[in-house]
Amino acid sequence: MQRDAMIDATGLTKQFADFTAVDHISVRVERGESFGFLGPNGAGKTSTMRMIGCISERDNGHLTVLGMEPANQGAAIRARLGVIPQEDTLDLELTVADNIVIYGRYFGLDRAQIKQRADELLEFVQLADRRDDRVDVLSGGMRRRLMIARALVNQPELILLDEPTTGLDPQARHLVWERLYRLKRDGATLVLTTHYMDEAEQLCDRLVIMDEGRIVAEGSPRSLIDQHSTRDVVELRFADEHAQQLAVSLLETVGQRREVLADRVLIYSNDGDADVERLSAVGIHPESLLVRRSTLEDVFLKLTGRSLDE
Amino acid sequence: MAAPPVLRVVEHQAYVFKSFWRGTLFAYVLNPLLYLGALGFGLGALITQNQGEVDGLPYVEFVAPGLMAAAAMMAAAGDSLWPIMAGTKWLRVFHAMVATPIAPRDVYTGTVIWTSLRAGMGAIVFLAVAAALGAIPSIWGVVAIPSAALTAAAFAAVLSAYAATQETDLRFTVIMRLGIMPLFLLSGTFFPISQLPDGLQALAWLSPLWHGVELCRASTTGTLALVDIVHVAVLAGVVLCGWLWGTRTFAAKLAP
Q: Which residues pair with A96 in a beta bridge?
């Protein structure tokens, strides 16, 4: 085995009664990396995270986390992980600070030590002024930041985040991203799942795209886009279905590739502006038009034929 | 070496309890006062006038240990249904625990231990109030405290295991009404089970509460005998069965 693999999985599989949630996936995460699982709901991301977090057992394949075997060293591995699950798991009736103290006690940490660390952590997630408030009065974004602070109480070597900003408003999301970015900059190893392509692009050095329990692509956000999409995308919207159908038949020579969606047509193009000019030449007059750069969303659409939030 | 994981779960429960214990103290004191006042003295006076003693005891001395065991059962049932649902589904705090070195079986065992301890605390208050009212004739009454806690453990072990199999709390009310209430009324709490029709009497022997009541009554009346070990064995057997079940249901729920 190469040195410093934080996670090393081959053929990792999770089976539930009548379906395969995770189907023979292989991933390797190195120390200091920020790694993502991108995919729609039901792709098997959470089941994968539970196996990596040594919460549920795998049904097949090989897995080591921090160089250890989850099947018999689960507790020792979990002692060195920081886990932030998708849904908050806070004690609502306790104060912000007490939530960190009691969580630190789960790791068997010394109470005085935790209290001191709790103050630093609350400072880090910008909740220091709320330390004595009960959790049930906090907003969703504050609770999420408390979840992050709490998961850092044992100074984890590997931080697992399952959908870290799902359900948060844009401002709260940016605050969480900014804190996670700082952790990453300070050398933490982050592994996260998300179905937001912007989250994956912001936070991940490298990611895999998952669909129906399998990995369909792997690489850095940039390389995935370069490999599977064009530089630009022209988005066209038409007045009605009929106009869209008519336009599609005329579009065949425009751009590298076209995707026809229910409400719009995407033209994958290496030079968006040039292709926009060609539109009127072939007699297409869309109701609205937008030229943008390709994103991971486009990569996902190309690889699976569906969009991420479907 | 740090405390074993089970104790960290108990510590969590105690930590949460610390934030609201004052509110429960009042109920702990009021409950025995009301029950012993109404039944032990109110109804008891009537019984004494008409019949004299029940099983050779003034009624208040007969009913006090029964109520004590029943209160432990009620506390355990209340703490083992909805709070378990809160831990697994509503607030999901049990999911936070199993992401740390704590395992699902520790969560189960720790919560059952805590529920039994809390019922034991209730039993201490109950015994003190009952003794102050003159319903506890023997110093052996202190043994009724661990007896009540063991009774609570039997119910907590089984009901917590069950609660972790449920997705909603719809059936919990049914369990309270059709399971816990009949046991409360018919387990030798208020009258000796020899008063029950023959078929029902055999059923009462199956009631864990009856074994708890018998233990508490033998304690508070100072008539503990070696044969009472049978009650301890039955209750311990129920705890063990619950544990075998609950360690599985908690693992299935928390670590699918």
A: none
Alpha-carbon Rg of chain B, whole angstroms?
19
Q: Which fold has domain A230-293?
A: Alpha-Beta Plaits (3.30.70)
pLDDT at A1: 46
Choose among B140, B239, B151: nearest CA to B189.
Answer: B151
Q: What is the mean pLDDT of residues A41-54?
A: 95
Residue of B nearest to A102 (CA): B12
Which B-chain residues 71-100 have CB contacts (< 8 A) with chain A?
Answer: 91-93, 95-100
Place of tokens 């705890």: B239
The answer to whether B26 contacts chain A (CB < 8 Å) is: no
Mention every residue, 6+ apart, whose C-beta is less than 8 A from residue B108.
B160, B161, B164, B243, B246, B247, B249, B250
Yes or no, beta carbons of A105 and B8 under 8 Å apart: yes
CATH H superfamily, domain A5-226: P-loop containing nucleotide triphosphate hydrolases (3.40.50.300)
The DSSP 8-state label assigned to residue B135 in this structure reads -
- For B37-92, write each residue's pLDDT tens digit: 999 999 999 999 988 899 999 999 999 999 999 999 999 999 999 999 999 999 99
Answer yes or no: do B100 and A102 touch at CB < 8 A. no
**Domain boundaries of chain A, sorted by first residue:** 5-226, 230-293
**Tokens 């699950």 belong to which residue?**
A85
> Mean per-residue pLDDT for A11-22?
95
Among A267, A302, A263, which Cα is nearest to A282's? A267
**Strand boundaries in chain A, DSSP class E:** 5-16, 19-30, 34-38, 60-65, 81-84, 158-162, 189-194, 206-211, 214-219, 232-237, 257-260, 265-269, 288-293
Q: What is the DSSP string of A214-239?
A: EEEEEE-HHHHHHHHS-SEEEEEE-S
Nearest alpha carbon to residue A260 among A281, A277, A243, A285: A243
* Among the partner residues A16, A55, A108, nearest to B2 by beta-carbon distance: A108
Q: How much is the pLDDT for A3? A: 59
Of B5, B15, B99, the CB nearest to A102: B15
